[in-house]
Write a structure and sequence with these properties.
The chain is of the alpha/beta class. 39% of the residues lie in helices and 7% in strands. The protein has 15 helices and six strands. The chain has a six-stranded parallel beta sheet. The longest helix is centred in the middle third of the chain and has 18 residues, at 200-217. It is elongated, with a radius of gyration of 21 Å. InterPro entries: DNA_pol_lamdba_lyase_dom_sf, HHH_MUS81, PHP_dom, PHP_phosphatase, Pol/His_phosphatase_N, Pol/histidinol_Pase-like, PolX_PHP. This is PHP domain-containing protein. It holds the Pfam family HHH_8. It comes from Streptomyces graminearus.
Length: 397
Amino acid sequence: MQFRLGRNVLEGGFAGPDRRKGAAPSGVRVVCGRSRGSPRPCGAPGVSLGRMDAVAALERIAFLLERSLAPGYRVRAFRTAARVVDGLPPGEAAARAADGSLESLKGIGPKTAQVVREALAGEVPGYLRRLEEESEDLGREGPGAALRALLRGDCHTHSDWSDGGSPIEEMGRAAAALGHEWTVLTDHSPRLTVARGLSPERLREQLDVVAGLNARWAPFRLLTGIECDILDDGSLDQEPELLERLDVVVVSVHSKLRMDARAMTRRLVAAVRDPHADVLGHCTGRLVTGRGRPESRFDADEVFAACAASGTAVEINSRPERLDPPRRLLRRAVAAGTLFAIDTDAHAPGQLDWQILGCARAEECGVPAGRVVTAWSADELLGWTREGRVPARVAGA
């Protein structure tokens, strides 16, 4: 089911101890597709409805479809076509458009071929124009815009190494194109097999991949991380040695969401007190669209007090189907004095644009901007996750 980001989402119309130790940035050239020919801006921040090349048009369409939660097969069709066209020798796309043979290429269908033909003819493809007209202008003005302008990163994103839909590199490039200075890659932990959670061996391999990308991307930084399952007893689903190596650890419940409230409270308190935990992800586990899912029951005041005492941030999850925590709990977290991470939980590049939804809820519920860790620089963030230090300006927030 396609989910349109309208005003009903923005307005919510759906019924301590020591921590563990240890606009795109000016230096980043954000290039879509392969690094051949002239660099192209990614389809993330917006595309002027003037002359554009075919790959940029295909990627912008995919971005807008991802942002609207369109079915994955539609997104894959345009991202696949973009890669195919980008890999052609110079002039071949134009030649094939002229002789009608674009669709003979594996990965190019009638709709994507039409986009290519119109872009090569110097036109704005009709399908792209319709999507731009239908899409909401997220983050430019209105609720949450002031806070969104302060954000410098995102602590919760996924790639196709687990249950995301795009490669690590595409997620990083899209984040930089949105203006982030840093983004944390947080694929799932081993227990969540349905989401292809990373074994310790795969996570170690991913750390090497991220290091290689960062060697090329400076000053933009892709930080290492994990969305680590909170097990039934509150322990974390990954080797402590590996958690120690990561920049950011998001801890979340994905199983037994309806356990007894007292047991769930003990579970969450134990998790947020773990010295490796940095962010408590989507704390109630609710879903507010489709068939929905009720909130997990727990003593919110006890959990948020534990977060405040241990320095673990409460996530404001911006996914339209989550919008977690609900307002009444978000206000209680503010009163408890917790830190916050406004995250997208993005599983595709276009979903990185959802932070405005969390920002709107944060502003409405009185979240102080200084206590939002996603508004900190990368160095400030790492000072907090590794040494428990918060920026001096946050002390009185």
